[in-house]
Amino acid sequence: MSAVFERRTRRVVRSAVALLAVLAATAASAETFTVNVDQAHILKVPDKVTTIVIGNPLIADASLQSGGMLVVTGKSFGSTNLLALDRNGKTVMDTTLQVQGPAGSNLVVVYRGSDRESYSCTPECQPRVTLGDEQKFFSETLAQSGARSTQAQTPAH
C-alpha cells in the first residue's frame, strides 16, 4: 500500500506544479502597462517576437525595434490589448495597455462653461491639442500645428 500511496502523492505533486505553472503564466500575462496620451513607453519583449498586434489601434500604437524593444505610444484614452507573436504565430505575450490623459504640473485646463481648453505652461502657457477639448479650440490649434509642420518641411526658396 505504500507504493500506491507514493504514486498518488507524485501525481498530486505533478498536478499541483502544473497548475502553479499555469497560474504563474496567467498572472504574468495579465500585467497592465500604462502610458499617457501623446507619450511613448518602452517595453522589453522576448527576443523571439516577430509580430505585434494592438487590439484597438485608435488607442495605442507600437513599433518593434531590434533587441526586443517595443515602443508603445498612447494615442487616445482607454484600454486595449497588446499581443506579441513568435515566428510560428504563437502568442508569447498578452497584456493590457491602459492609456490615460496627459499628466504633469505644466498642464493647465480652462473651462468656459462646459467647453474645455488645454494649455501647456512650460514656462509660458500655449494652446495644446488635447482630446476632449472644445471642438473649435481643438481644430484651430491642430490646424496651426499642422501648418507649422508643413512649413518646416517645405524647402526655403
Class from secondary-structure proportions: alpha+beta
| Overall radius of gyration | 24 Å
The CATH class of the largest domain is identified as Mainly Beta
Element pattern in H and E:
HEEEEEEEEEEH
CATH topology call of the largest domain:
Immunoglobulin-like
Distance between the termini: 96 Å
C-alpha geometry: elongated
How much β-strand is present in the residues? 35-45%
List segments where confidence is low: pLDDT < 50 over at least 5 consecutive residues.
22-29
User: Level of helix content?
Assistant: 25-40%
**Biggest sheet, open or closed, and with what strands and sense?**
4 strands, mixed
How many distinct beta strands? Answer: 10
CATH architecture of the largest domain: Sandwich
Polypeptide structure, described:
The protein contains 2 helices and 10 strands. It is α+β, with helices and mostly antiparallel strands. The protein has 3 domains: 1-30; 31-102, Immunoglobulin-like (Sandwich), CATH 2.60.40; 107-153, no CATH class. The protein starts with a helix and ends with a helix.
